[in-house]
Specification:
mainly beta; 4-stranded antiparallel sheet; 52% strand; 149 residues
Amino acid sequence: CVQSDTAPPNPECPPGTILENGTCKLIQQIDTVCPSGFVEEGNRCVQYLPANKICPPGFNLSGQQCMAPESAELESTCPPNSIFENGKCKVIKNIDMVCPPGYTDSGDDCVLYVAPAKECPPNFILQGLQCIQTSSAPTQPVCPPGTVL
């Protein structure tokens, strides 16, 4: 006689991962990448450009001064999409988020999904997606009615 019982396998994740909805989840910090010529400041990419020097009407730029019959204060202007800060034009761009190969960008994190290892309880063996327990018992001969062993 053979009796078989089935039980679902207990999913087990590798160290450093967490089990979530039947898959092992590994979270890794997102690497930030700024475009060429930009530097990272906080959570933004910033580029500094020299300010354009413009003199008021009737004055001419001479070195770092506006010259006319009387001297005038030098004005600084910046190109569109930039702001004047500390004597320079500051261009701000969003940081591009780049996940390592195989990881999925989930907005704030890079996530790697791996299938959990299948492990069966003691005395069970894994067959496909199920844990099977097989036990054997000695057979008892049975004779048809009206006969004797």
